[in-house]
Specification:
By secondary structure, the protein is α+β, with helices and mostly antiparallel strands. It has helices at about 40-45, 50-60, 120, 150-160, 180-185, 220-230, 260-269; strands at about 40, 65, 70, 75-80, 85, 90, 100-105, 130-135, 140-150, 165-170, 190, 195, 200, 210-215, 235-240, 245, 255.
């Protein structure tokens, strides 16, 4: 970035201050026009069918049709009025929805109706969009769970090193030794796999069997694995925060939509 001041040509070897013949004025180049329409892979992802990466695969294998014709060009742009079909069924983009649930015990984190009580039952009236949970909480785990149909946000949680950490309030079957807490904080190996947590500490004014654990993993099985490695059993697990999202004013079993500021925060990650 250049500092403000006199503009010059950085490619000239020496500056020439002599007046020369006046330069002919030429027509200014117009800014390139923005391409109309929306990229096909984004259109498909916005419909809630899959992620953009998966959409690229479906396009390349000829599973997508636009106005009755198979389209396998990655850069194809869908125009208003176009009819897009995936696997024979017409699809349309739906507005992005972001729902935060304070999950109670006894609900499975799945979109399958065959699993009995699921978290989808709890957020069924939150939106008509095809939202899905990001990450997992065990059936008996409680706390925050984020739902969205925004494939880009989902990918940030699962693939990005900048994914927001999740803070868990963990209760163990016995007091956690200070030595074990230190080992977990510093990192350790399980079957030659490096295990790293963002932070771990005892809960203030609580027994030593209660700890706060911050991790970036979207699943919770790793939490149990960590403590089982040191000879402890997880009795209770509650997700307290997801990045800057908290349970404030969100009772157990209730949901709310994210604010514009919260959505902007997720998109900036």
């Amino acid at each position: 970035m250049q500092r403000g001041g006199r503009k010059g040509n950085s490619n000239n070897k020496s500056a020439n201050f002599k007046k020369g013949p006046a330069k002919k004025s030429g027509a200014k180049k117009s800014a390139p026009k923005e391409q109309s329409g929306i990229r096909l892979n984004k259109y498909i992802a916005n419909s809630g069918v899959c992620s953009r990466r998966e959409a690229d695969m479906y396009i390349a294998t000829g599973q997508v049709m636009v106005n009755g014709q198979v389209v396998d060009q990655m850069g194809y742009r869908v125009q208003p009025g176009d009819e897009v079909k995936f696997d024979g069924a017409r699809i349309q983009p739906e507005p992005n929805a972001y729902v935060l649930l304070n999950k109670p015990k006894g609900f499975a984190v799945t979109t399958s109706a065959e699993k009995g009580n699921t978290v989808m039952d709890l957020v069924a009236k939150s939106t008509k969009a095809n939202i899905k949970p990001i990450g997992r909480l065990g059936r008996n785990a409680t706390g925050l769970l984020l739902f969205t149909n925004d494939a880009a946000i989902n990918a940030k949680f699962t693939n990005s090193p900048k994914a927001p950490g999740r803070l868990f309030h963990i209760e163990l079957d016995k007091n956690l030794k200070a030595e074990d807490l230190r080992k977990i904080k510093e990192g350790f190996k399980i079957d030659n796999n490096e295990i790293q947590v963002e932070d771990i500490s005892y809960v203030d004014k609580a027994p030593k069997k209660e700890v706060g654990l911050k991790i970036k993993h979207t699943g919770t099985s790793i939490v149990r694995t960590i403590f089982e490695h040191f000879g402890y059993q997880v009795v209770r697990m509650d997700c307290v925060t997801i990045g800057s999202l908290t349970k404030k004013d969100l009772p157990r079993g209730r949901w709310r939509h994210l604010s514009e500021q919260e959505v902007a925060y997720l998109k900036m990650l």
